[in-house]
Specification:
Elements: H1 34-65, H2 69-93, H3 100-121, H4 125-133, H5 139-166, H6 173-204, H7 207-231, H8 252-283, H9 287-314, H10 318-343, H11 357-390, H12 397-427, H13 434-458, H14 475-496, H15 503-508, E1 521-527, E2 532-538, E3 541-546, E4 549-553, H16 556-572, E5 579-583, H17 589-595, E6 602-606, H18 612-620, E7 641-644, H19 649-655, E8 660-665, H20 681-689, E9 691-702, H21 708-721, E10 726-732, E11 735-744, H22 753-760, H23 766-774, H24 784-789, E12 792-795, H25 796-804, H26 819-825, H27 834-843, H28 857-867, H29 872-876
Parallel strand pairs: 5-6, 5-8, 6-7, 8-9
Antiparallel strand pairs: 1-2, 2-3, 3-4, 9-11, 10-11, 10-12
């Protein structure tokens, strides 16, 4: 409720109903009325379906518009912009004479129709978009247009549901409370939708199945709302005379409240973006982690909204309550910063000691509740208080709810974009101070919102004139004033003591207390626009970390793998390779490997995070042969290198007409949310389509931090595009570690180790031979080509029975499924011994490739004897010549 016009000076806000003009009742408002309870249940279903759609749509659209921070920012801004427009515009388009429940039912039905249309129509739009629009518009403009075309219609309808249903109640204290209950019920339903989509529908089924479930919920809500409407007659209010007194902005206090709730939305979404980034380090950036974080955030909003809605029915000072909530957020934001950046990183938790999900997930939920629940509750409570603070007699409840919701959503859009795309990377570009500055700015914004709300609580107008402030010194307002002044006075102290994100957390993430990182010392850390990066050292080894995950190092096993990704396709290419596309820079070792091949004259390097190439050059210059070194003008010193830093590799290949002799991909681990798009059947087909005749694709496949289902999924998906693909193993001291899978445009090409050895002995390839010797291939007087052949671990034809037959065939990872990220995320804390178990299970199916390796009989027999040594019985009874 708001200050009533024409209050005398020094009066208090009266505790009177916000009545309507005489006449038949509009809808109902009694807490005991079963119709409102049933409507609340329907709105719970709306929220559940909406969150399922959100997860599916953002995942689908990320495939189209890219996975960099700007593309994701465009998606979120468009999604929330649709909600804002729907809440603001539709109440002005639909007459108040229409039955609110019928309007709400039609909106839900249309949302379901759009949901089904998007999931069935969007997957084929990527190639159409690339062929029809690439090069005609700037990338970001096209992405915004595409996201708007897809997302605005259904999100517009979603945003309109709350204003539509709110017309069922009157602008009385109990009616305003029910508006808050509807909003809270919608949020609680969203919690259910987030968990249902993240932990069952998508992991167990796919995006189509999840969408169908959401559409069924929409249809059920539509049916329920129509049945309620038929049994609950609705008498609309008489037409409202549109004058200044009936406007939401009829006094300055209401305007201040709208600004305050906008700032609240800005800090809420800014906070969610910041703490999601931090918690993804502590908990591991899996899809399950993001589902838990979102569910806890929504749970807090639901608790706060429900509690505040109950208070608005009894309370008389919603503006003072709003001020108290915003003042409390100053402390809650500081608490979250302290909990995530100072307290939790020091908890002696080594999750590698227990990989049971029954232990891991509850612990992750507890940590999220510990850090973010207080702030989420206060943000949730702010909405009903703001709604009650601007409501006044005779207003269209649909318009008032829509306006408050729109202001909150506009602030949320600004917060998500401002904090994630500018604040964090700008202040974290050279050291990890981005999240610290973001927390400080959020506390300042919460202070501003508290002050605006407090002023609004003291502000009253006289009729239509702005003739001054009238102070009402009652206890709630004085208490709010004293509390906010006290907290605001603490703001400099809180800001000064706001912790920065620890460098160890950026480097080691959830393994910060694991014994395997006991001797490493972090020498550099920074926060970028897409990820946080760090470099650590231990003895003579250096390690490169991305968002809490070790991505590259100078350790022998890692160097061997990084070199293999470059040497295998370059040496096995039947012709003279000239052009290379590298997906993922990392430490630059793989990219640098190609620079020592005399025939390669074009090296395109795709890297999403701008911080990574300079870091790779500074700390791994010798190992990567200076491949990413830049001159004073920011251009590569090596003229053959072409950095592609503006886009992710998948989107780049969708929009480029270039083809390559070699494409090599070393993406981040598949359990990291978003990385599974670089392991899909469609992505591998993109790679195949961009190969020149005789071209080769190589892809990294990890065995550690994985499980057998995830590895089988990766291999089956790759072999679905390259049926006769080859696996090369990279063991670590004789045990399984990771692998390189190779696909060829000409699968019938054979391999001659003797011819490769002869080439390596020529002067042009002496650097190549030395590079291979550095990682154990041909060390001493050995033959590097022969040693490389010994890493042969099988072919698609050998592994087909392991992957496709039996009671549990391997899953395919596709654009409309992304099954891999759920399989891999389930094994984040897998037993390290699982890597060797998986590798040996695969080697069981290996056969010597008689038709693949064509070489001298001596080399052939020697390879075969080493790969398949005779058993003790065979050694005792050798075959008779």
């Amino acid at each position: 409720m708001t200050d009533v016009p024409s209050l005398p000076p020094n009066s208090v806000e009266p505790n009177i109903p916000l009545s309507v003009p005489p006449g038949p009742a509009q809808g109902c408002e009694s807490f005991a009325d079963p119709v409102l309870g049933l409507a609340l249940l329907l709105f719970f279903g709306s929220g559940c379906a909406a969150l399922i759609y959100e997860v599916v749509w953002l995942q689908l659209l990320q495939l189209l518009v890219g996975s960099d921070a700007i593309a994701i920012g465009v998606l979120l801004a468009t999604y929330m912009g649709g909600l804002c427009l729907g809440s603001l515009i539709l109440p002005r388009l639909v007459s108040t004479r229409r039955h609110p429940l019928r309007v709400y039912a039609v909106l839900e039905l249309l949302v379901g129709i759009f949901g089904l249309a998007i999931v069935f129509g969007l997957p084929n739009a990527d190639r159409l978009a690339a062929t029809q629009f690439a090069g005609r518009l700037s990338g970001i403009s096209f992405r915004a247009m595409l996201a708007a075309v897809v997302l605005l219609p259904p999100t517009f309808l979603m945003g309109a549901t709350l204003p539509a249903l709110s017309r069922w109640v009157r602008a009385t204290p109990s009616g305003v409370a029910w508006m808050g209950y509807f909003y809270g019920g919608n949020i609680v339903g969203a919690v259910g939708g987030s968990l249902l989509a993240g932990f069952y529908l998508l992991p167990r089924w796919n995006m189509v199945a999840a969408t169908v479930v959401a559409a069924i919920i929409n249809i059920a809500v539509f049916t329920g709302a129509m049945l309620l409407a038929s049994s609950s007659p609705f008498t609309p209010l008489p037409p409202i005379k549109r004058d200044r007194s009936s406007s939401l902005f009829h006094n300055r206090g209401s305007i201040l409240v709208m600004f305050a709730i906008a700032l609240s939305g800005m800090t809420a979404l800014g906070g969610e973006a910041v703490w999601t980034r931090i918690l993804a380090l502590s908990l591991g950036g899996t899809v399950y982690t993001f589902s838990i974080i979102l569910a806890v955030f929504l749970l807090g909003l639901g608790i706060g909204t429900s509690a505040a809605s109950s208070m608005t029915e009894r309370g008389r000072h919603p503006r003072a309550a709003l001020a108290i909530c915003q003042g409390g957020l100053i402390l809650a934001i500081f608490w979250e910063a302290w909990a995530t950046c100072s307290s939790m990183p020091d908890w002696p938790i080594d999750l590698s000691l227990n990989s049971q999900l029954s232990v891991v997930f509850p612990l992750d939920v507890m940590r999220c509740l510990w850090a973010i629940l207080p702030a989420a509750i206060l943000w949730g409570a702010s909405f009903p208080f703001a709604l009650a603070a601007v409501a006044s007699p005779g207003q269209d409840t649909g318009r008032s709810v829509g306006a408050v919701y729109a202001a909150n959503t506009l602030g949320a859009i600004a917060g998500a974009v401002f904090f994630s795309i500018w604040v964090v990377p700008h202040f974290g570009n050279h050291e990890p101070l981005g999240t610290q500055m973001a927390h400080r700015l959020m506390m300042c914004l919460a202070t501003a919102a508290a002050v605006l709300s407090l002023i609004a609580a003291f502000l009253a107008s006289s009729g239509d004139s702005d003739d001054g402030l009238y102070l009402s010194m009652n206890f709630p307002r004085v208490a709010a004033l004293v509390g906010i002044v006290f907290v605001a006075a603490l703001l400099p102290l809180l800001a000064r003591n706001t912790p920065a994100i620890p460098q160890n957390l950026i480097a080691f993430g959830r393994q910060i207390h694991s014994s395997i990182h006991g001797g490493e010392n972090v020498v550099y850390a920074a926060e970028g626009i897409n990820s946080s990066v760090a470099v650590s050292s231990s003895g003579s080894n250096r390690y490169f970390h991305v968002s809490g995950k070790t991505e590259a190092s100078t350790d022998a096993a890692d160097m061997r793998l990084q070199r293999m990704l470059g040497h295998i396709p370059s040496l096995l290419h039947k012709g003279d390779p000239h052009s290379v596309l590298i997906v993922g820079c990392g430490a630059g070792v793989t990219a640098g490997t190609f620079t020592i091949y005399p025939t390669i004259n074009q090296i395109d390097l795709c890297e999403l995070e701008p911080l990574i190439p300079p870091l790779a050059d500074k700390y791994f210059h010798a190992e990567n042969y200076g491949v990413v070194q830049m001159d004073a003008g920011g251009k590569p010193v090596n003229p053959r290198v072409n950095p592609i830093n503006f886009d992710d590799a998948r989107h780049y290949m969708l929009t480029t007409s270039r083809t390559y002799d070699i494409i090599t991909s070393d993406p981040i681990h598949p359990w990291v949310k978003g990385s599974a798009i670089l392991y899909t059947r469609e992505y591998f087909q993109l790679c195949k389509d961009h190969l020149n005749p005789g071209g080769i694709v190589t892809q990294w496949v990890p065995l550690y931090e994985s499980n057998i289902d995830a590895v089988r999924c990766e291999l089956r998906t790759f072999f679905d595009v390259f049926p006769d693909g080859i696996v090369w193993g990279n063991d670590n001291g004789g045990t399984g570690y990771d692998m390189v899978v190779m696909g060829r445009a000409a699968p019938d090409d054979t391999i001659d180790p003797d011819a490769i050895s002869a080439r390596l002995d020529t002067p042009e390839y002496l650097r190549v031979k030395a590079s291979m010797a550095e990682t154990g291939f041909g060390a001493g007087a050995g033959d590097p080509a022969f040693d490389l052949m010994l890493t042969y671990a099988g072919r698609g034809r050998d592994l087909r029975s392991w992957l496709t037959t039996g009671d549990h065939p391997a899953d395919l990872n596709t654009d409309d499924n992304l099954r891999l990220q759920y399989l891999a995320g389930w094994s984040l804390d897998a037993n390290p011994n699982d890597a060797d178990t998986i590798y040996k299970a695969m080697l069981f199916y290996r056969r010597f490739p008689e038709d693949l390796i064509t070489t001298s009989k001596q080399t052939h027999d020697r390879l075969k004897q080493i790969m398949f040594p005779p058993s003790p019985i065979q050694r005792m009874f050798p075959p008779i010549p």
